[in-house]
Amino acid sequence: MSGVVAAGLGVVAGELAAALLSPSLSPVSAVGSVVIDAMPGPVKDWAIGLFGTADKAAFLVAMAAVIALCGAAAGVLQLRRPPAGAVVVGLLGGAGLAAVLTRPQMSVLSLLPPLLAAVVGILVLRALTARLGR
């Protein structure tokens, strides 16, 4: 759970920073856009046919599940093989940063939210797993 909480707080920090600094481009929306752009047409059509107008909500739930699973893995790794868990959380933030860099509305300010998300996630993960280790 430490990893899930750390990843979740990282995402929240990134989204809040994006709301203040770069409202048109948050890390979550950037990653979502990259994934959707990379998806083959038949897969998009299948998802729209399956979920209808709730396709975006279903996609956000799937993204949250992937983030939670990565966070859970990061928590276990951080306890067993530090700093491997922190590296996983950093890679999540790196994915957000890479996604933001590919968007046409990218600006210098839009780079800060994914960086903040990674830093917050790593710091929270380290703090929570340190408490568990004691």
Characterization of this structure:
This protein has 134 residues and is mainly α. Helices cover 82% and strands 0% of the residues. The chain contains 6 helices and no strands. The chain has helices at residues 2-21, 27-38, 41-51, 55-80, 84-102, 112-133. It is globular and about 50 Å long.
Extended strand count: 0
User: Uncertain spans, ≥5 residues at pLDDT below 50?
Assistant: none
Q: If you compute it from the alpha carbons, what radius of gyration comes out, rounded to the nearest whole angstrom? A: 16 Å
Instruction: Tell me the series of helices and strands, N- to C-terminal.
Output: HHHHHH
What percentage of the residues does DSSP assign to strands (E)? under 5%
User: Which shape, going by the Cα principal axes?
Assistant: globular
Q: What structural class do the secondary elements suggest?
A: mainly alpha
The tally of helices reads 6
Distance between the termini: 16 Å
Report mean pLDDT, rounded to a whole number.
Answer: 95
For the biggest sheet, the summary is: none
Estimate the helix proportion, in percent.
over 70%
What are its keywords?
single chain, 6 helices, 0% strand, mainly alpha, 134 residues, globular
